[in-house]
């Protein structure tokens, strides 16, 4: 996996984690407007990062929820999440 | 429905082959307090929840647990992928290898397969949320034991992330429990003052 792809994927994972945690908080605090504002901001950033990633490397989501800009079905492109080496020195 | 996203929730990493660690970490894949049990427990309880916050929390936490199952699977897979037969025998993982090679299977640390009796779905929302809070505590304890057993600092970091999520989920379930108590203590039938049901009763 090239470093640029890895870096962008890591950025997506960070933003998504913020969204997951805010999402759980909002389930029990649906009227917290500050948290909702936070969520909207992060979620917009996440959408932008995902769009950038998918245009360069293919879909992150299946069933048509992602974008396949290439001429072939990029969903099958490796590596799959469990195959990536996230060690700081790794590739 | 569910949609798969081709990324982990956390960048699971290990230093190298370590079948000994894989043998214990796998309990969070298919053990009594593992992530499969957690996700199935929450996703099956949500149908009979009376308030929207509880339905949302169970759906979202249940879904996050599926992502945790994938993180644990990644740890186990990467810990055994490049292990030699000698390493596997020395780690006592040979009995697992005999049945599954290096494939992932839902077992606890001593090899017992996953069973549905690990979880409960009782129908009483208060009972179910208490079950879930206990489940989060049990999973937290298990991650603490696994961190004590781990001799791989990278794997420990990943286990620490999962450990922290148990604490957050416990908090959210506590809030759901509070909301359920509010819901049940609230009056749902409104009586009209001075209303006498017998006054205009037809004989």
From TrEMBL, chain A:
<dbReference type="InterPro" id="IPR024207">
    <property type="entry name" value="CotJB_dom"/>
</dbReference>
<keyword id="KW-0946">Virion</keyword>
<keyword id="KW-0167">Capsid protein</keyword>
<dbReference type="Pfam" id="PF12652">
    <property type="entry name" value="CotJB"/>
</dbReference>
<protein>
    <submittedName>
        <fullName>Spore coat protein CotJB</fullName>
    </submittedName>
</protein>
<dbReference type="InterPro" id="IPR016571">
    <property type="entry name" value="Spore_coat_assembly_CotJB"/>
</dbReference>
<feature type="domain" description="Protein CotJB">
    <location>
        <begin position="7"/>
        <end position="83"/>
    </location>
</feature>
TrEMBL record, chain B:
<feature type="binding site">
    <location>
        <position position="136"/>
    </location>
    <ligand>
        <name>Mn(2+)</name>
    </ligand>
</feature>
<feature type="binding site">
    <location>
        <position position="68"/>
    </location>
    <ligand>
        <name>Mn(2+)</name>
    </ligand>
</feature>
<dbReference type="InterPro" id="IPR007760">
    <property type="entry name" value="Mn_catalase"/>
</dbReference>
<feature type="binding site">
    <location>
        <position position="35"/>
    </location>
    <ligand>
        <name>Mn(2+)</name>
    </ligand>
</feature>
<comment type="similarity">
    <text>Belongs to the manganese catalase family.</text>
</comment>
<feature type="binding site">
    <location>
        <position position="65"/>
    </location>
    <ligand>
        <name>Mn(2+)</name>
    </ligand>
</feature>
<keyword id="KW-0464">Manganese</keyword>
<dbReference type="GO" id="GO:0046872">
    <property type="term" value="F:metal ion binding"/>
</dbReference>
<keyword id="KW-0479">Metal-binding</keyword>
<dbReference type="InterPro" id="IPR039377">
    <property type="entry name" value="Mn_catalase_dom"/>
</dbReference>
<dbReference type="Pfam" id="PF05067">
    <property type="entry name" value="Mn_catalase"/>
</dbReference>
<feature type="binding site">
    <location>
        <position position="169"/>
    </location>
    <ligand>
        <name>Mn(2+)</name>
    </ligand>
</feature>
<feature type="binding site">
    <location>
        <position position="60"/>
    </location>
    <ligand>
        <name>Ca(2+)</name>
    </ligand>
</feature>
<protein>
    <submittedName>
        <fullName>Manganese catalase family protein</fullName>
    </submittedName>
</protein>
<keyword id="KW-0106">Calcium</keyword>
<dbReference type="InterPro" id="IPR012347">
    <property type="entry name" value="Ferritin-like"/>
</dbReference>
<dbReference type="InterPro" id="IPR009078">
    <property type="entry name" value="Ferritin-like_SF"/>
</dbReference>
